[in-house]
Amino acid sequence: MGKKELGKADFTEAQIKEFKDVFTIMDNNRDGVIDRSDLRQTFVAIGKTGVKDQELDEMLMEAHGPLNFEVFLDLFGSKLCGTDPEDVLLQAFQMFDDEGKGSIKFEEFKVYLTKWAAKFSPEEVEQMVKTSPIRADGQLDYRSLCYTITHGDE
Fold first, then answer.
1. Model confidence pLDDT, tens digit, residues 75-88
2. Staple partner for 104: which of 37, 49, 96, 120, CB 3.0–4.6 Å?
3. What pTM, to 2 d.p., does this model score?
């Protein structure tokens, strides 16, 4: 039995808008296609400067052609199909976790949230601080946060 792939019709309007926002952030030169340069700049923006050209090319090869918004949406659909929501969240946080330790520096992550991503307001960041497992050393335990988001506060 094959894996069902999601298409544009399987996302809500709000999800498509969020994907479009992400695509626009990643498309640094605003030419409607994400290329190696755009990917590199995206990684630099989140603090990952050592990504090799080969790694970027491998990512782009998953698209089997120019990575425009439609292809971007299809890729997300195929990646998310059958994926547990907790796994999706964990994969997103793992991009910030170079050491694979399950936590990230909250202050750095907060800058990303307020400057790059959905541009959280100070009130939204404060709410996140209240509900997030931030350790005394300033590390956000994102594994615990993902579990709480997807399973509730048990």
1. 877 766 655 677 77
2. 96
3. 0.53
